[in-house]
Amino acid sequence: MKTPRSRKDRWPRKVTCGRVCVSVYRRTMPNGEPGFMVANYAGGRRRFDSYPQEGDALEAANRLARQLSERDVLTASMTRAQAVEYASAIQALKPLNLGLPSAVTTLVEAVKLVGDLPAVVAAAKFYATRHNRTLPKPVHAVVAELLQVKEARGASPRYLEDLRARLNRFAVDCQRDTCNVTTSDIQAWLDGLKLSAQNYRNFRTVLNTLFEFAVARSYASDNPVERVERVKVRNGEIKIYTPAEIARLLAAASPDFRPCIALGAFGGLRSSEIERLDWCDVHLAEGFIVVGATKAKTAGRRIVPIHDNLTEWLHPYAGQEGKVWTGSHEEFYEAQQATGAAARPPVRWKSNALRHSYASYRFAQTADAGRVAGELGNSAAVVHRHYRELVKPVDAERWFNVGPEAPANVVTLTADAKR
């Protein structure tokens, strides 16, 4: 008759804590030595944790039983609503292959970093747009692509020239992918240029065009220029030249720059229009200038009359072909400054003053805002607002009598006036 084994010698051993029971098994290991395994269901599926000593295995089983028991107590204390929330959380995490403990730990850490749950979501969206939905492309490459698209769509040469000059300058200083350019980067760059209010606004406008293009083509997640500071451009006092000053400027101008001054002073053309003008647009015999749509700032064709004194200034150039101004934009600016300095006495070059002078004297001469507006290529309201009563009709008479051989203070009288 066999002696019955004591409970201590029976396997598997059962370790209980509350309603939880953990089994400990004794097995012979491949090396012939005894080993002990604890059945662990904590992860939802059974696994065996191996221990070389029985005491270690029993201690681990007791510890596991206590942990599982504590969880069981927590589950038993849940209300129905809490149990539903718990089940919903488990289901939501399942497709992501995440466990509830790790998800909660990560969320708690994220909230500590950014402050609250809405901030966590905002930070996640920002990260996703910056890193997952953009195609990295250097700024200079996006600039080149933008210019190519604008040219293919028929943008004016002047507009393309302005885009190219400003954006290439930005691309040289911003050697990075477009998606990594921030508002603070752009703001610091614009501030460092120390621009006038108008020039600042012009740069901001073309940069906004660049980044709108980048967003549309997924080279950037958002447009950082939208948050760049806007500056107000205050239209200052309209500055004009006197007849004596324009006579000194014309006398001091070089032969290649003199017709440019005459066209601005006595034709009202903008500097940008003069730079694009061809001699074939100047119909000297017929008495008018055609400013084509591709050469006008407003992309609208207009006819400008050639006054008698402008005819005299342009007569030496009759029959010439090609561009009226053959130099670059920078050389045009340099010629302006050099002419003012060469005049005797010197005349300070005033921005846009040639066109402003023409508008002021022409309005005083005709008292017809609509007619002057048509010659200038803007609106009658602009003419009324900026040029009304700046000069007197007698000053206008002197202005349009400044010719190559006529002193600025001499008024050529008509036959009727001499009687």
Main beta-sheet strand count, sense and barrel state: 4 strands, antiparallel
What is the 3D shape? rod-shaped
User: For the record, what CATH class of the largest domain applies?
Assistant: Mainly Alpha
Order of helices and strands: EEEEHHHHHHHHHHHEEEHHHHHHH
Cα radius of gyration in angstroms? 42 Å
The number of domains is 4
Counted beta strands: 7
CATH architecture type of the largest domain: Orthogonal Bundle
User: pLDDT under 50 segments (min length 5)?
Assistant: 406-419
Strand content: 5-15%
Helix content: 40-55%
Average pLDDT score: 85
Polypeptide structure, described:
It is a single chain. With 419 residues, the chain is an alpha+beta fold. The protein has four domains: 7-76, no CATH class; 80-131, no CATH class; 139-227, DNA polymerase, domain 1 (Orthogonal Bundle); 243-418, hpI Integrase, Chain A (Orthogonal Bundle), CATH 1.10.443. It is built from 18 helices and seven strands. Helix 14 packs across helix 17. The protein is rod-shaped and about 130 Å long. The model is unreliable at 406-419 (pLDDT under 50).
